[in-house]
Amino acid sequence: MGFGTSLMLKMTIDDVLTENKIRADVNAWDLGSAKGVKGDLFVMSSDMRKNVDGMEGKMVFVNNITDEKEVADVVLKAIRELKG
After folding, report:
1. Looking at residue 25, what DSSP letter applies?
2. 81: burial class by Cβ within 10 Å (0-12, 13-18, 19+)?
3. pTM higher than 0.90 for the full model?
4. Which CATH code fits 3-83?
5. How far apart are CA 13 and CA 27, in angstroms?
6. CA distances (Å), 67 to each of 12, 18, 62, 79, in order?
7. What string of DSSP letters covers 39-77?
8. What band does 2 get if pLDDT is binned at 50, 70 and 90?
């Protein structure tokens, strides 16, 4: 996933969080840079699943990064799980 794709996904996640009154620091990273970052939650395209070795944190995947409903469902579920 390149930076442009990551930025598109970040904007969608920002919208979802705003709509649900959730505050979070959301960053866009290309896959190579993300491997050196620690995070609570990584959201990425499903086709990146095979490239996440060495990443630390909860990872969730979406099939269509432009589908706001799918992104919302995946992200909000992951946030609920992280909150315990």
Report:
1. -
2. exposed
3. no
4. 3.40.50.2300
5. 10
6. 8, 16, 9, 18
7. EEEEEEEGGGGGG-TT-EEEEEEES-TT-HHHHHHHHHH
8. low
